[in-house]
Design brief:
Heterodimer of PMPCA (alpha) and PMPCB (beta) subunits, forming the mitochondrial processing protease (MPP) in which PMPCA is involved in substrate recognition and binding and PMPCB is the catalytic subunit. The protein has helices at 2-9, 13-16, 100-107, 118-126, 152-164, 170-189, 194-205, 227-237, 252-263, 326-336, 354-360, 393-406, 413-430, 434-448, 454-462, 466-476, 495-503; strands spanning 60-63, 69-73, 79-86, 131-136, 141-148, 243-248, 288-293, 310-317, 338-340, 366-375, 380-388, 482-487. It is an alpha+beta fold and 517 residues long.
């Protein structure tokens, strides 16, 4: 301390109080004597990023003369995500062999009128640091590209060509058949049964209609799908009125300009669109059961094999994402939460959700209990997936039916607030990602013609009350259950027993008495 004080005594008053001091270079010449708060001579004034009211973060939407919507969201950065979303998916295949959307996903970004091959497309994107992807769901097909903002013109040109001018060559279709067969084989062999169970629960809930139609191409349809059939489908569904060009990280006027240049007067390779042939069926919830008896004993062998499990998914009809009740259902789904028995704990991991507290923490033999909420423009499905040893299937089913019945109880204030806070934080964290913002913008504009901003959704979540959650649960429990079961099903209760449990006051299965075990 004494040494420090003596050093300070040797300094001048200006040095001690941080006042600008003229110091010398090693050459002997003096530094310019300038205060740090004074702008340096000859240096341009810095321009700082600022937010000027709503216009900086609101989604801008323009509808072109041919009906195509252009939507954009400004976001700081030198990269952008741009894509075309089409109101087309497996739910629209009622008049066609199932699997067309699956084929189109695999055929995406192959050779087009301008590009000889997929490699040429990838090389073009590489010049702008870009990547491309196509994903199909039950109701939407999404072609997306992430690249440098400077390459926007090239990106929109490429997207237009990939969506409206694909060649669909015989060798490309044959390669797609091989890829589809491999994916179907992999679906039945993978240790994670969730994609297969999701497919089964939709088939049970919406038997033979709209979102209940298979998302993956059935094996018997692989050879049936050819260029002629694909063109016939594309003619009906790939028309401008059913498309949105969405972009994140670019100026709206620039995107509109590119859309007019490459998407306004373009004749598709399949000829004139015939939107009159579009299937406008509304989802009909039927309820029911889909079972698949399967030997799960050798799903994952090795030094730490997964034990043989039976997987059950029980679902009830919720609501469309277009109605007000969608938000209380989202809060209810978050309140149920759940996960696997090996999930690591910690803040925000959902360890205080009902399926952890009431199920996984109390019944050590259960390997998984997770809540899912699937929502579409005309219906929805809230379901719980559980897995356990085949000998304890009956007990597992009863635990899940009791959880459904207990949803009708009034939620505690702390429990409800925690679920709402978790839902808001999940929403905001997901919307940090540019591709997620792109998908959110595209899907909302495609479905409703506008976009609800994150702060509006957070306000709606905050307004959900315990009575709202109770009301939507009571309404949900009036529907017939949908059940998907996979594995050894020798101990599975009958569908009638599951239905009776969900209609009872306590959720218990009817007692069965056996003379011999």
């Amino acid at each position: 301390m004494a040494a420090h004080m003596s050093r300070l005594r040797g300094w001048s008053r200006a040095q001690r109080f941080g006042i600008a001091v003229c110091r010398q270079y090693s050459s002997g010449s003096a530094y310019p004597c300038v205060s740090l708060s004074t702008p340096l001579p000859g240096i341009p004034k810095p321009v700082f990023a600022s937010v000027d009211g709503h216009e900086k973060y609101e989604t801008k939407i323009t509808t072109l003369e041919n009906g195509l919507k252009v939507a954009s969201q400004n976001k700081f950065g030198q990269f952008c995500t741009v894509g075309i979303l089409v109101n087309s998916g497996s739910r629209h295949e009622a008049k066609y062999p199932s699997g067309i959307a699956h084929f189109l996903e695999k055929l995406s970004f192959s050779s087009t009128a301008q590009f000889e091959s997929k490699d040429e497309i990838l090389l073009t994107l590489e010049k702008h640091g870009g990547i491309c992807d196509c994903q199909t769901s039950r109701d939407t097909t999404m072609y997306a590209v992430s690249a440098e903002v400077k390459g926007l013109d090239t990106v929109v040109n490429l997207l237009s060509d990939a969506v409206l001018q694909p060649r669909l060559l015989d060798e490309e279709i044959e390669m797609t058949r091989m890829a589809v067969r491999f994916e179907l084989e992999d679906l039945n062999m993978r240790p994670d049964p969730e994609p297969l169970l999701t497919e089964m629960i939709h088939a049970a809930a919406y038997r033979g209609n709209t979102v209940g139609l298979p998302r993956f191409c059935p094996p018997e349809n692989v050879e049936k799908i050819d260029r002629k059939l694909l063109h016939k489908y594309l003619q009906s569904y790939y028309c401008p009125q059913r498309m949105v060009l969405a972009g994140v990280g670019i100026e709206h006027e620039q995107l509109v300009q590119c859309a007019r240049k490459y998407l306004l007067n373009v004749k598709p390779v399949w000829g004139v669109s015939t939107p009159a042939n579009v299937d406008k069926s509304v989802a009909q919830y039927t309820g029911g059961i889909v079972k698949m008896v399967k030997d799960m004993s050798d799903v994952s062998l090795g030094p730490t094999p997964i034990p043989e499990l039976t997987h059950i998914m029980i679902g009830l009809e919720s609501c469309s994402f277009l109605v007000d009740d969608f938000i209380p259902f989202a809060v209810l789904n978050m309140m149920m939460g759940g996960g696997g028995s090996f999930s690591a704990g910690g803040p925000g991991k959902g360890m205080f959700t009902r399926l952890y507290l009431n199920v996984l923490n109390r019944h050590h033999w259960m390997y998984n209990a997770t809540s899912y909420h699937h929502s579409y423009e005309d219906s929805g499905l809230l379901c719980i997936h559980a897995s356990a040893d085949p000998r304890q299937v009956r007990e597992m089913v009863e635990i899940i039916t009791r959880e459904f019945i207990q949803m009708t109880g009034t939620a505690g204030e702390m429990e409800l607030e925690r679920a709402k806070t978790q839902l808001k934080s999940m929403l905001m964290m997901n919307l940090e990602s540019r591709p997620v913002i792109f998908e959110d913008v595209g899907r909302q504009v495609l479905a409703t013609g506008k976009r609800k901003l994150p702060h509006e959704l957070c306000e709606l979540i905050s307004n959900v009350t315990a009575s709202d959650v109770k009301r939507v649960t009571m309404k949900m429990l009036r529907s017939k259950p949908a059940v998907a079961a996979l594995g050894d099903l020798s101990e599975l209760p009958s569908y009638e027993d599951i239905q009776a449990a969900l209609s009872s006051k306590d959720g218990r299965l009817p007692r069965i008495y056996r003379l011999f075990r």
